[in-house]
TrEMBL record:
Protein name: Amino acid permease-associated protein
Membrane topology classification: Multi-pass membrane protein
InterPro entries: AA/rel_permease1, AminoAcid_Transporter
Gene3D superfamilies: Amino acid/polyamine transporter I
Cellular component GO terms held in the UniProt record: membrane
UniProtKB keywords: Membrane, Transmembrane, Transmembrane helix
Transmembrane segments: 12-30, 42-66, 87-114, 126-145, 152-172, 192-210, 230-251, 271-293, 328-349, 355-375, 387-410, 416-432
Pfam families: AA_permease_2 (PF13520)
Predominant cellular place of this UniProt entry's protein: membrane
Source organism per UniProt: Listeria cornellensis FSL F6-0969
Subcellular location(s) of the protein: Membrane
Molecular function terms from GO: L-amino acid transmembrane transporter activity
Amino acid sequence: MENQKLKKEIGFFTALTIVMGTVIGSGVFFKPEAVYSATGTASLGLLAWILGGVITICGGLTAAELSAAIPQTGGMMMYLQKTYGKLTAYLLGWAQTVIYFPANIAALSIIFATQVANLFGTGDGIIVPVAIAAAVFIMLMNFIGAKVAGSFQAVTTICKLVPLILIIIFGLFHQGDVAFRLFPMSVADHPFLTSLGSGLVATMFAYDGWIHVGNIAGEMKNPKKDLPKAIVFGLTGVMLVYLLINIAYLFVMPAAALASTATPASDVANIIFGSIGGKLITVGILISVFGTINGYTMTGIRIPYAMSLDNQLPFSNWFKKLGAKSSVPYNGGIVILLISIIMIFTGKFNQLTDMLIFVIWIFYTLTFIAVFVLRKREPELARPYKVPLYPVIPIIAILGGAFIVFNTLFTQPMNAGIGLVLTAIGLPIYLYKKKKGHFSE
């Protein structure tokens, strides 16, 4: 019934821009530090960006089958609920509420504050207060209403393309004394497989957001034909942009230098454009990051509200409350903001992003597996779009997801452990609510 209410107005080009605009965020400006410190060489770092793109494309093509077959509000939570039951969907919603969205907001606020400190030449002492101020400001703006937050999102989406385009064009033609080398592929103190795995995990933060591209299936004129094309061309375009800007970085700064700076894009811009031009590019990056924080805030504060409608959270009646004038679920926003502020005090951008990627990719991988489960269990389910080259594409997505999860588990056990513990805290709450009969399986 919900699908029948949607107007089928989206064609291929609009879908293509939605795909690219959803995925391209702030990670491309800041993740080079983590990628090249993990891989140790330019070539292995670029390989991590390529593999991240391939896994993302396969994941997008796979998840889109579920999006087209189950075009319901809630997205991935509904796919998991239909496939595995309410417990799995609940744990996803819980993890998104206490880990995924707060960690994204915290990590991005930290990087925003780091950029501010870099722009004005202040010390690191301002990073935590500026990060908290940014997170609070964005949350308060969202409390005013979705229209204000949405308009701000549209402006910042356009602004984020400017520094990308300028760095790529001028970086690729930069005449400096940096020698760009593809060999050696790896070095002695960076074992190939574990280094590539850690670099891959770092790139996945920049590629994150792809899971949402299938949500437009119900509004497409011809999803069976246009959705896979939009995903393949859109995500391939994202991968090419990421490769080009990383090559531009490497033309200006060596991999070792990129690995040692928390603000690689700004440092590269300063070299290319000089002090004044570099600062202007940095301002563009700041606007982009601010917009990305807003995007995660807009989406995140609605997760606890949606869960509370089914009485899935403690104090669900409190989470259900909406602003009298704005109709915004502000109580969920307050909780997410408080968790974000606690995370901000860690001051560790890469640790937060690696933890959130580890947790969310557990659920992404379960989503890929769901395609096989539902094909066997419900062959009669209407599927306006089917993943091409089945079962090869879903298997690549599953293997890629499993590699990301297990590599993080073994190479970053503390990050993985914290993520698992925070997710597991939701289990006794679920069992208690179920015992009380608040919701049923």
